[in-house]
Amino acid sequence: MGIVRKITLRYLLRNPARTLLTVAAIALSVGMLCAVAGFAASLRDILEHAGVITRGSVGSALSPYYAIAAVAGIIIVICSVIVISNAFYISSSERLRQFGMLGSVGATGKQLGQSVVYEAAVLSAAAIPLGIALGASLQSVVARLANTVLREAKLVIDAGLDFRVALNPLAVVVAVVVALLTVLVSAWLPARKAARTSPVDAIRQAGAVQIRLEWLKTPRLVEKLFGFEGALAAKSLKRNRSKYRATVICLTLSVVLVVSMSSLVWLLNQDARVRFGGYDYDVLMYIRGDLGAVDGIDAQLQAIPNDGSRTYRYTVLSVAIPDGFYTERALESGMAYPGEYAKQMILYAIPDDGFLALSSANAGVSGAVLLNNAVSTINYERINEFAPYNCAPGTTLTYGVDMGADADRAEVLGELTVESVTYAVPWWIPADNYSGSNVNLVVSESTFRGMYALNSEVFKEHTTLAYFVTVADSPAYSESAKAVFAPFEKRDGFFFRLFDASEQARQYRNLIHTVAVFGYGFIAMLSLIAVTSVVTTISTGMALRRREFAMLVSVGMTPGGMNKMLAVEALLYGARSVVVGLPLGVALSLIMYLMMSGGLYLFPYQPPWRAMAASVAAVLLLTFATMRYSRRGTKKASIAEALRSETA
């Protein structure tokens, strides 16, 4: 081993904390990049197994996931470069002095270059294998969590659709190259500066510190709140802000991601509440066909065990509009226009007892009830609700098919007498099935059957039975219902659709959990890099400030004053990350809210207060704890020894 390699290796061993933290930063960077690329490769294998894409192709189905993986990879690479280079930069003055000493005893520029290359090789050789192993471990942990969630949601039943550990060779090569280049460049910069500086100036650090008066002005508020120690802390951060800038960026990015991811999970949960929270049933079925066949299916469905059910029929027809039928409000709203001849009519048929409860007339189950409510419902939220019709009981309405179209196609079927008018929508009709833009009439089941008998072919084509069921085990009920419908599937004119609302809601919430697992997993991995950067920056910086601390103690600063100064430094250090990170995170969460709401604003925006408070607490706790721990190492040295020492 040459003298240059021996000196370089000795330097690394003499500074174990800095060496280990640098190795940790490189390993985390390589591991995260491998993990993200591995998840993308595993997703591709899953889609190939499912037949979504063909092997060797780059389908459009993968483009969003590749875009997300690319963005995550870019973020990781940027953070990795920042953290690794920062680990070298904060000790650049010490490295410059070391290269100056080597130059003073005759080391050539070539030998200094060899030292840099050897240091980069040693650090990379130790860190890169650890990083690859860490990436595989991270994949394994997150993949197990994701597979568990997906299987519980019954989104995955095929073993070939599981996430697995997959190392992407290209990602490994990119991670290795990025780590090697970053370490090499970061170690080479002090060597280049030493080569351009005389050995004496490099050892004496001539010109290493350049101070301009305006840079060190202390904010009056800091000095007023924290006194002389606070002023010293603020001056120290300003003097060394270039060394702390990289770590502030990493912490800021972590805060932004935590706040925005927490907001995304909240938005998805709110969307699930709006999307599925309005359901007062578990299973919904639509059946269209011959009335006799539909009645037979209804009887079989009633025999399947359930906790409750209700049905109604609806027929889509058209109705002639009498003069003065619409109110001024309806005309102004645009739901109708003067002179309109016909309008689409929805004829609802509900059980006789329900119709009697709805109707205020004494005509029994005959006639119709007009629903005089133009409410529009979007995701179970009622908007634009008013009474659109001037219609008194006793009004006769003519109904038929295509009455607003060509006269040749129009077909009048009969007349209906409005026995009563109500503003309330009967509970049989769920909010998402009701549209106030149509003319909505309700008749009894008995009246409907009489109308059906007169025009059976038309009603057979235009009538649908809506069947709502409340049941604990909705998947089992759905399977039983499908078995009932199976014999009718090939009949002409028969239509059937089943919607398992309970299962859909459960799958959607489990999908949210999967997003949270991946999102928070990525944030946790990125936060490890930020933590490594904080620990590296503060611990190395504190070790290099032993002489400064000894000088302050020698002029009378008490241990309490020293602790106060460092506490203020930690506070200011963390505050910079929080002050920038929180507004950016809130802004990003607000953008996501606006994108997801689509301009409807069905639920109000709420800043992620808990995530914001947790981010502030975590950042301050990390900086305070690291500063306090690093300070313990500087207390052991004597003042005289610290003042005499040129370096840590």
UniProtKB/TrEMBL annotation:
GO CC annotation, single: plasma membrane
InterPro entries registered for this protein in UniProt: ABC3_permease_C, Macrolide_Exporter_MacB
Residue spans crossing the bilayer: 20-43, 63-89, 120-146, 166-189, 246-268, 517-544, 570-596, 608-627
Cellular location(s): Cell membrane
This protein's record includes keyword Transcription regulation: no
Membrane topology: Multi-pass membrane protein
Signal sequence segment: none
Domain ABC3 transporter permease C-terminal: 71-199, 522-636
Alphabetical UniProt keywords: ATP-binding, Cell membrane, Membrane, Nucleotide-binding, Transmembrane, Transmembrane helix
Entry GO MF terms: ATP binding; transmembrane transporter activity
Family to which this protein belongs: Belongs to the ABC-4 integral membrane protein family.
Protein name as it appears in the record: ABC transporter ATP-binding protein
Organism of derivation: uncultured bacterium contig00149
